[in-house]
Design brief:
The chain has one domain (3-57). The chain is built from 2 helices and no strands. The chain has helices at 3-14, 30-57.
Length: 59
Amino acid sequence: MNRQELEQRLRSELAIPFYNAKIAERDYSEAEFQEMKAQLQADIEQYAHDYVNESNANG
């Protein structure tokens, strides 16, 4: 899949409609997509966790 298809699948599967990936214009395999998706999902979860902890710390 190309970069545009990869971005569309990430937006759809992770329910982040305005996400724009900063990735190279080339073809990506399904394995690369799954790796990127897992990393992005982990980053989102970590961001949410950090945000909640920061909000709780600031009262």
